[in-house]
Write a structure and sequence with these properties.
Elements lengths: L2 H25 L8 H13 L3 H20 L1 H24 L7 H21 L6 H13 L3 H19 L2 H23 L4 E7 L3 H12 L3 E7 L6 E10 L3 H11 L4 E7 L13
Antiparallel strand pairs: 1-3, 1-4, 2-3
Membrane topology: Multi-pass membrane protein
Organism: Neomoorella stamsii
Protein name: DUF2179 domain-containing protein
Length: about 280
């Protein structure tokens, strides 16, 4: 097995452990069925008394077979491993750990974030824990939407069932946990928006580019642009900086050309020199 494969399985193990902690410490004890097979297993646990981990494993079998057919054997092996580990961790930790809070709001916040971080690590390692997060990856494969959005769509039905089984208030807390899980998954997979991209349109593009490279030690890309109203050709600058450097960048541009047109936007992830390095 290649080194990358080992790293992937280590990541899947860590991710399933974090997810199981979110379930055992916060979500399941407080009857927060935050979507997915884990949410459905939570409902069945309180209705029939079935173990949550074992129930998740049984419910995952048809989804695993579907994912195996569409996404391939390599993904299937990692999904099988992630599914088994999450079930084992969940039922094992239940024997040793107890919920630190009975406050449904705190449980939905911390449980949702912890589960999302864990699932994000699993996804980033090329695996899945089965359930509707596998369904979300299948959505992404066919519909080209993010895993977090796919998870949000699929899990709405489970939350509705939880509302009918428990009560509407717990369903609302489950929805909050689900939204936090979705955001955490996308943050782990795509980055937390730590960088900013600036598009600068100015008649003094050369002077601004030199100052950015000298003062901020950042690269600048010059793009050919043309104002459709004026028909004037001019160079457009593209600069990517850290959030802490945005104020300095704007001050630098304003000092050279107060009339410059500047667009600043969030960047999910930046790979390359000066930012996050490529994973090998």
């Amino acid at each position: 097995m290649r080194r990358k494969e080992w790293y992937d399985y280590i990541g899947i193990t860590a991710g399933t452990l974090i997810t199981a902690l979110g379930l055992v410490l916060f979500l399941v004890p407080n009857k927060i069925a935050a979507g997915g097979v884990s949410g459905l297993a939570t409902v069945l646990h309180y209705v029939f008394g079935w173990p949550v981990g074992l129930t998740m494993l049984v419910l995952n079998i048809p989804l695993f077979l579907a994912g195996l057919k569409v996404l391939g054997w390599n993904f299937g092996l990692k999904t099988l491993y992630g599914t088994i580990m999450l079930s084992v961790f969940t039922d094992t930790l239940t024997l040793w750990l107890h919920a630190p809070t009975t406050n449904a709001l705190l449980a939905s916040i911390y449980g949702g974030l912890m589960s999302g971080v864990g699932l994000g690590v699993v996804f980033r390692s090329g695996g899945s824990t089965g359930g509707t997060d596998l369904a979300a990856l299948l959505f992404g494969h066919f519909l080209h939407i993010s895993s977090g959005v796919g998870l949000l769509l699929v899990d709405a039905m489970v939350i509705s069932l939880a509302g009918l089984t428990f009560n509407v208030e717990l369903a609302l807390y489950a929805l909050l946990a689900l939204i936090l899980t979705s955001r955490a998954i996308d943050a782990i997979q795509e980055g937390g928006g730590y960088a900013k991209a600036a598009i600068i349109i100015s008649d003094h593009a050369g002077a601004i580019a030199r100052q950015v490279m000298e003062q901020l030690d950042r690269g600048v890309t010059g793009l050919a642009g043309r104002g459709l109203y004026t028909g004037k050709e001019r160079e457009v600058l593209l600069v990517v900086v850290q959030r802490s450097e945005v104020s300095r960048l704007k001050s630098l541009v304003a000092a050279i050309d107060p009339g410059a047109f500047v667009i600043v936007s969030n960047i999910h992830e930046v790979l390359g020199e000066g930012f996050r390095q490529w994973r090998r």
